[in-house]
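Milestone M4 deliverable, item 7.
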Amino acid sequence: MRIVIITGLSGSGKSTAVRVLEDEGFFCLDNLPITLFPTFVELVDKSKDKVRDVALVMDIRGRDFLEGYEQVFQQIRDAGHTVEIIFFDATDEVLIRRFSETRRRHPVQESGGSVPEGIHLERELLAGLRRLATLIIDTSEMNVHQLKELVSARLKGEEGPAGMTVHLQSFGYRYGIPLESDLVFDVRFLPNPHFVPELKPFPGTDPRVRGFVMEKPATATFLAKLQEMLDFLLPAYRQEGKSYLTISIGCTGGRHRSVVITEQLRVFFNGRNVQVKVTHRDVEKG
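Output delivered:
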């Protein structure tokens, strides 16, 4: 049985993720007590319906969840089932704004306490679980549609015909490193089109910007070394059973250099028996 644990910070998008899982045919259950988890799995495994995909939302609302979850997860794995932990996160500022917009009370907000205090306490309580996560998804910069697309791609990456999904993502260090990254490469050493007046207004997808970045000797050297490393890493990741790889390319603002390199990697991965998804997270911000 494939079991996906949906967890993370309150307000980070778990409810949206569950709806995606339901659409993909998962049997979903919200807020199951951790003590009932082994019994639930045993009952589902023996049921006549032959449920193979299960998603469980487990978070701070069930305080007993924080006691013994690691041992319970290992118990389920020892029984032959696959347990994935998807941890949803977002910046404090974004979470505060979301709670303000919905006017909801934070689930660990003490009587008379503030939402920021509740978020801080929740982070502390979930820190150990976050370290165990199979995948961390930062939803700070995502709308509902982008989150649905990402969760769906992650699920299909586990069983898609290509065997692996590679998510290529450009970003700006100014706005933070994407938390879901498996590999991060910094291209701020390349000449910056931002300081060329006739190129500054255009994104890295524009041929003029691409030409400026690609004509530099450092770019060709970097790409050759990076592609050689990726040719080595992909088969190794596949052998270890990894089926979803997020590669993030960063420059200062996420508008020029990182976009160019990400698009070059899109071309590189074509024909390499992988499904490729490309996101330019910050291209419209600067």
